[in-house]
Specification:
Length: about 625
């Protein structure tokens, strides 16, 4: 049999073996010349080839050949990716992680998706985790990891398990006293790991291959359990190192169990408080989805029969077509008729709620402590007691089985709503009249259907989207806790990557936010996503203008629709459209519905001052909270 070999590479392989196979050298060699190594092994075990006549020690080659049939550290990680349900992960290559990326490519069931930069890749993984349950981002040492950090911290704030993988330095470098590129130019290698530890629920450094299974599993298990990102750093010379085959996935999953005694006590207390109340009400919070409690919450709502209000960052977690839905509770900027009912209730069970300055409109909308049952992910707070170790879904479901029906708050809401119905009707504008925010909102609302996810970026898009009605089945995505502008474009890309084939994604993104991460639209084009983006061009940072105006809130205008043809280049099928009137917008939406093979971006031009009334009110209250003077302590 004739085996053709690259002579130089073959001789290099032989040298390594004759020097006693230094592991790191072997790994480095393997990374580049796996095939040559395999062929060398073949030659070694079958005698000389026609091309090479190097003598090699058979036994050593055989040992290496056996090694090659086993898992590597990178393969181990790739298998775990697949097992936690990833079909894609997001990455940017760099010299430290190239070998790791090769090792991940080995798993054909998980697709590698390149992003324009690491910040976008992290946001894309975060968006993917929203629709898929978990996500992953793979970056290079320091420069890649630092760029990704904002998105990773965002995933922490939003409670999304994103596996954050970075290549690390070569294990030989610290003791060799080397200075390395992509560092701050000192011999200190500890700072990246220490920084990342602060924004992840688990952080591991793989510096010895034999530790890899335990450390990878620890990070992934913690991320899944805590619904937070976890960090895995793999030394750049270890991703090809031999590694045990992963144990069955089930061994990785451990779930904390509810303490039955605590649950019984909490359910008894909650039942008494709710049954004794004259005007009970339920409030849906952001953690309902994170902790798998959406169905249990609905079960409780239907058992209690009361009015159900939804916090802004939980929009979509209770159906808006449900007869008990009374609207979005957001203090003074709540949807119509909702605030007076919440204020009127005498006992509120808030499930998975997070009361922050944003969600409470600058601390002006927190239910009084003595009228609040606050069911958190793992504990329940009552006015005079607290029980811990209780899973949110277990608690809600158990209370549902015990409470008495009381629809007082729902009935009162219906009376209020009848009074204000006429005010909320919006008529369509003249087709040739300049586009307004009200007309824009009306047309986007009409375009939503049961298969739509509406994703809204920080900015007036929050308010425009928040008060749209979600048809049954429609979903809503908002990054309200972290609130980082630039999130929406890459999160849209990641979300669309994980979206079910029969659903559609519509995103509302302001001009200022778009300018941070715009280039990821190019990857929506690359992968032919049929996403629709409403780019709201109101010439600058309108939210900031309303909180505190100044010259810094006005930005360079771009030809946003025109960008699409630049990104299409020679092979893309994106479509960029511009709307300056209601008629042009209607036309563009119609074209978008028919377009296939790439995203559609509709640039909607409106006046800078044309913003939501709710934004004006909310902005003033948040500004007031921000501006509180320092307390005197003497
Ligand atoms: C900033 C915000 O154009 O939307 O509707 O015009 O406000 P609107 P735009 O996207 O502008 C967004 C702008 C500048 N927030 O008004 S909300 C401060 C900020 C942030 N995140 C980061 N940097 C600055 N939230 C990363
Ligand atoms: Mg703007």
């Amino acid at each position: 049999m004739v085996v053709k070999l690259n002579r130089q590479a073959f001789e290099h392989a032989t040298n390594l073996i004759e020097q006693g196979i230094h592991d790191d050298a072997h790994n480095a060699f393997m990374a580049r010349r796996r095939h040559t190594w395999k062929r060398a092994c073949f030659v070694a075990s079958h005698g000389k080839s026609n091309d090479c006549s190097c003598s090699v020690r058979l036994s050593i080659f055989e040992e290496r050949a056996n090694t090659m049939s086993t898992y590597t550290v990178g393969n181990y990680l790739a298998t775990r990716f697949e097992q936690i349900g990833l079909k894609h992960y997001f990455m940017v290559p760099g010299d430290y992680n190239l070998v790791l990326l090769d090792q991940l490519l080995w798993n054909k069931h998980v697709q590698q998706i390149g992003c324009c930069n690491e910040l976008n890749a992290a946001y894309a993984a975060e968006g993917y985790a929203r629709v898929n349950g978990a996500g992953a981002v793979v970056v290079t040492f320091n420069v890649g990891a630092f760029s990704a950090l904002n998105g990773v911290a965002g995933a922490y704030a939003e409670s999304l398990p994103v596996i954050f993988v970075s290549a690390g330095y070569n294990t030989n470098d610290p003791s060799a006293n080397h200075l390395l590129h992509h560092t701050i130019g000192t011999h200190d290698f500890s700072y990246p790991y220490e920084m990342i530890q602060r924004v992840t629920c688990a952080a591991v450094q793989i510096l010895h291959a034999e530790d890899a299974p335990y450390l990878i599993d620890h990070a992934i298990r913690t991320a899944l359990r805590e619904r937070k990102p976890a960090y895995i750093e793999i030394a750049c010379n270890l991703s090809t190192a031999p590694c045990a085959e992963p144990a069955p996935f089930e061994t990785l999953l451990t779930s904390e169990a509810t303490n039955q005694q605590a649950l019984n006590a909490a359910v008894a207390t909650a039942t008494t408080l709710l049954n004794d109340a004259k005007k009970p009400l339920l409030l849906a919070g952001v953690h309902l989805r994170t902790y798998g409690a959406i169905d249990a919450f609905r079960e409780l709502a239907e058992a209690l029969g009361c009015g159900v209000a939804v916090m802004p960052n939980a929009k979509g977690f209770f159906p808006e077509d449900h007869p008990q839905f009374i609207g979005i509770y957001w203090g003074g900027v709540s949807s119509s008729s909702c605030e007076p009912i919440v204020d009127w209730a005498d006992m509120i069970l808030a499930a998975g709620a997070m009361f922050t300055d944003y969600t409470t409109v600058g601390w002006t909308a927190i239910p009084p402590r003595e009228q609040l049952i606050k069911a958190e992910p793992w504990n329940v707070r009552f006015p005079h007691a607290e029980y811990t170790n209780i899973a949110l879904a277990d608690f809600l479901s158990a209370v549902a089985k015990n409470v008495r029906k009381n629809d007082t708050t729902l009935e009162q809401y219906r009376r209020e709503a009848r009074k204000t119905l006429a005010e909320t009707e919006v008529r369509s504008a003249e087709a040739n009249a300049p586009l307004t925010r009200v007309e824009l909102r009306r047309q986007i609302q009409d375009d939503l259907d049961a298969k739509t996810t509406l994703l809204v970026e920080s900015g007036d898009s929050w308010f425009n989207g928040m008060f749209m009605h979600l048809p049954d089945g429609a979903r809503f995505e908002i990054e309200m806790q972290w609130g980082s502008i630039g999130w929406a474009v890459p999160a849209t890309f990641g979300y669309a990557m994980g979206l079910e084939a029969d659903r559609r994604l519509v995103s509302m993104i302001g001009d200022g936010s778009f300018q941070l991460t715009a280039q990821e639209v190019a990857n929506m084009i690359r992968y032919g996503h049929n996403t629709l983006i409403f780019l709201i061009n109101n010439r600058g940072y309108v939210v900031e203008s309303e909180i505190h105006d100044g010259p810094y809130n006005y930005i360079k205008n771009w030809d946003y629709a025109g960008l699409i043809s630049a990104w299409n280049a020679e092979d893309g099928h994106g479509l960029g459209l511009k709307a300056t009137t209601g008629g042009e917008l209607a036309d563009a939406i119609k074209k978008a519905r028919e377009h296939r093979g790439g995203p559609v971006l509709i640039e909607c031009q409106i006046e800078h001052d044309d913003c939501s009334p709710q934004l004006l009110k909310w902005g003033a209250k948040v500004a007031f909270a921000n501006e509180r003077p320092p307390q005197q302590t003497y």
